[in-house]
Amino acid sequence: MGMTLEHDEVSQLLGAYALDSCTSSEAAAIEDHGKTCPACAAEISRLRDAAGWLAVATGREPPAPLRTRVLDAARARRAPSAVSVVTYETQLARMTELLEALDDDGWHAPTADGRTAHDLVVHLAAIESLLAARLGLDDDPLAGEPDLDARTAALLERHRDAGPARALAAWRHYTDAVRRYARLDQTDLHRRVEWVGVAMPLDRVLVNRAFETWIHADDIRGAVQLAMRPPPAAQMALVAELAVRSLPAAARATGVDLGSRTVRLVLTGDGGGDWLLRARPDVPESSPAVVLTADVLDFCLLAAGRLAPTQVAHTVEGDADLASELLFAAPAFAAA
Questions:
Q1: In a domain, 235, yes or no
Q2: Fewer CB atoms < 10 Å away: N or C end of the chain?
Q3: CA 310 to chain centroid
Q4: Radius of gyration of the chain from its Cα atoms, rounded to whole angstroms
Q5: Are residues 25 and 87 in the same domain?
Q6: For residue 227, what are the CA distances in angstroms to 117, 224, 233?
Q7: Exposed, middle or buried by CB within 10 Å (0-12, 13-18, 19+), for 124?
Q8: Which residues in 92-121 are b (16+ Cβ under 10 Å) and which e?
């Protein structure tokens, strides 16, 4: 069964539909809705006429970078969504654009760790299906299995003899459900969702999912010799915040005891920031034992396990040993 959209959802998407900027499933749902809704059918016709007039007036395709910037902005304006929702939507849209352009060789080109685009999309579908199930949006095809590696292995087995189209359809099915839910019900963005063993606010889970989607999209880009594509600055700031706030827990997980010491982490570049970190909320603020400065993109790639600590250019003021321990701890929660 295809996607269905409510009237309010269709209204938000009509401008993008007129410019052929919706996904194929969104476009089909809008067309189905228009068959039974005269108001939306009339608006579709009006916007299509306007879009056609613009096409005649310009006479040529806009430059690809300009079109991408316009579409990214349009996605952000569809609804008064939180930045976490926009970040999630943006990375889903970018991944979809990448996957739809792959040929058969691209789908089966090995990434740096040996997995193919097909393997990674099945892996992402295994995780997104768990999120959809935890939100009550769909049945879990893997019967509630909480271990992400086990979920991936099970779904890979099911997709062993299937082509990329089936994997892409499965991933899109679950991400569409989560995306529509997050966009329309903002009051639920603060609800707690059991995620990686922690009761985590949904908006933070969405940033987590955007982070991994970005990283795996860049894994695929690397396999097919395309340029990496980091998130826009405002979205990078959310990803960096997630990675930075996880650092004290990563330190504990790797045996680094901060005790009563505080750490100042300064990330430079678009989307960077300045954080004072403590092992626990009850540790009083104090002069930092170390000030560690690095580029925000490098730090996020380190946290994702895509850069080694020795590859991250950084400066240190204070306890150099602690700085080194923190850099080695940062990838402790890197997704597979």
A1: no
A2: N
A3: 26
A4: 22
A5: no
A6: 16, 9, 17
A7: buried
A8: bbbbbebbeebeeebbebebeeebbbbbbb
Range of the domain at 160: 78-229
Q: What are the tokens at 34?
A: 């228009």
> Domain check: are 205 and 319 in the same one?
no
Q: Per-residue pLDDT for 84 more than 90?
A: yes
Tell me 308's DSSP state: -
Clarify whether residues 156 and 283 are in a common domain. no
158 by Cβ neighbours in 10 Å (0-12 / 13-18 / 19+) ranks as: middle
Q: How far, in Å, CA of 297 to CA of 320, rounded?
A: 22
Q: What is the mean pLDDT of the chain?
A: 85
Angle at 216 between CA 177 and CA 312, to 5 degrees: 135
Length of the chain: 336
Question: Which is higher by pLDDT, 52 or 210?
Answer: 210
Which residue has better confidence, 57 or 314? 314
Number of Cα atoms under 13 Å in the Cβ half of residue 241: 14
Retrieve residue 131's tokens: 């999120």
Alpha-helical runs (H) found in the chain: 7-18, 24-34, 38-58, 64-77, 83-100, 104-107, 117-134, 148-158, 164-184, 202-223, 233-245, 247-253, 296-303, 320-329
Q: Following DSSP, what letter does each residue of 248-275 receive, concatenated?
A: HHHHHHTT---TT-EEEEEEESTT-EEE
Counting the structural domains of the chain, the total is: 3
Q: What single DSSP character describes residue 319?
A: -
From 169, 195, 229, give the residue that closes a domain.
229
Facing residues of 317 across strands? 291
Q: What is the pLDDT of residues 286-310, one digit of tens each?
A: 899 999 999 999 999 999 999 999 9
Q: Which CATH number covers residue 104? A: 1.20.120.450
> Is residue 304 within 8 Å of residue 335, measured between CB atoms?
yes
pTM above 0.70?
yes
In a domain, 73, yes or no: no
Query: Within 10 A of 63 (CB to CB), how many other CB atoms are there?
Result: 9
Q: How many other β-carbons are positioned within 10 Å of the β-carbon of residue 167?
A: 25
Q: Is 82 in the same domain as 201?
A: yes
